[in-house]
Amino acid sequence: MPLKVKVTYCLCDVFCFYNSQFRKLEAELQKKFPGKLEISSEATPTVTGFFEVEVDGKLLHSKKGGDGYVDTDAKLRKIMDGIQAKLK
Description:
Glutaredoxin
């Protein structure tokens, strides 16, 4: 059974920056964990600034909580390590 990963992000702006950030993260996770994840997303109905990543219901990354975007190897590694721990 695939592990559930949910990304909640801010309502798409004119340039769809948050959506592109989600798609980039989704591609990285699918490449690292092929066939092991069920990745879903939810765009908030209003502008929130959210970019939140939950794995199996546990919040692993929160832009609103101070983590920013997943824009460094360290941030991506933190998420991947959390996924790896859940897959064991």
